[in-house]
Each structure stands twice: as structure tokens, then as C-alpha cells.
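Example 9 (inverse folding). The structure is encoded as follows.
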């Protein structure tokens, strides 16, 4: 399966704190909140580990995006993972999300805009889902740097409906690129 331009492959949401998210025909992104009907939607942190630390902090993890190329890489290493199973809201193709700079803006479909805030920080739930998977998405490279490959997080700056098959446009922020860090 090849995608000549960046594309939305699938969309997902879950109203509960389950690890995986359910496939949807479309999702509605709400400015300043996230995915309508998703447990992680909100202006303040919604991930349980973040709420336990400080529930008043801004939610920089309103939308989780993951590129299907990672799922294909995992499959070649013996880990069959379907879109949505790693908890992402949007599965993309044709765009290396983890290589984008902080503040990159993604236009998903006609009107939705998502500002990339950082990298997803993979946790032990990934190994609970599938043993050995965590070290495939979070590991140290040859120089000892921590590599996180489990997708990116973002905030919704303009709402809209997102469907599988929608195109993705990228706008890079002005100035020097700032590498993504975990959020």
C-alpha cells in the first residue's frame, strides 16, 4: 500500500481509559479540546498518570497521531498491530510524524488543524498489550540517545471532521526547527 501524499488512513476514539481505541467512520476535532467523545478530550490533562501529578496542567496530548509505516515495521519484526490498537486517534501514511518539529501544523481534511506538541512517551502498557513491543518503540540508539517511535501528540487549534482518506498538509513553524520531546 503506497500513499503518494500524506493521508489519513484511519481514525479512532474511545470513551473509556482502554489502551486501544475503536475504529470510527469519522472523528470530530474540537478546538482546544481534542476528539469529541474521546476520554482524553479536554483543555486540562486527561491521561490518568498526568492527572495524578497535576490535574490543572494544559492538555498537550489532545490528539495522538501514529504513522502506519511504524505498524508495518513492527509487523516485519513479528508484532502484528492494527491501526488504533496503540491508542492513536489518527493513523497516517506518507509522513514521518516523529521527524516533524515542535509546532508543526497539520491540516487534516478540509478544516481541522492540529499543532504538534511532542512525542508520545511509550509506557509499560505497550508490553501489557503485546510483550516485547515496548523495546521496539522506545530504545537507545548507537549514541545512547533515547528514541521514541510511538507517535506524536498534538492540540487542536481549529476544529473539523476527519475521515479516512483525507489528505494531510504540513506547515512548518517559522525559525529554526525544535526537535520533538516527550509530552
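The amino acid assigned to each position is listed next.
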Amino acid at each position: 500500500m503506497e500513499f503518494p501524499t500524506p493521508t489519513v488512513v484511519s481514525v479512532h476514539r474511545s470513551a473509556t481509559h482502554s489502551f486501544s481505541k475503536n475504529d470510527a467512520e469519522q472523528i470530530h476535532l474540537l478546538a482546544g479540546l481534542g476528539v469529541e467523545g474521546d476520554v482524553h478530550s479536554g483543555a486540562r490533562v486527561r491521561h490518568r498518570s498526568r492527572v495524578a501529578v497535576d490535574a490543572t496542567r494544559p492538555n498537550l496530548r489532545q490528539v495522538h497521531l501514529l504513522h502506519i509505516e511504524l505498524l508495518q515495521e513492527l509487523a516485519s519484526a513479528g508484532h502484528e498491530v492494527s491501526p488504533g490498537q496503540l491508542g492513536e486517534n489518527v493513523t497516517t501514511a506518507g509522513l514521518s510524524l516523529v521527524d516533524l518539529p515542535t509546532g508543526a501544523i497539520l491540516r487534516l481534511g478540509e478544516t481541522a488543524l492540529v499543532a504538534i506538541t511532542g512525542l508520545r512517551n511509550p509506557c509499560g502498557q505497550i508490553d501489557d498489550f503485546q510483550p516485547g513491543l515496548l523495546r521496539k518503540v522506545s530504545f537507545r540508539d548507537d549514541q545512547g540517545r533515547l528514541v521514541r517511535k510511538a507517535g506524536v501528540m498534538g492540540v487542536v487549534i481549529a476544529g473539523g471532521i476527519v475521515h479516512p482518506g483525507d489528505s494531510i498538509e504540513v506547515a512548518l513553524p517559522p525559525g529554526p526547527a525544535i526537535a520533538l520531546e516527550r509530552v
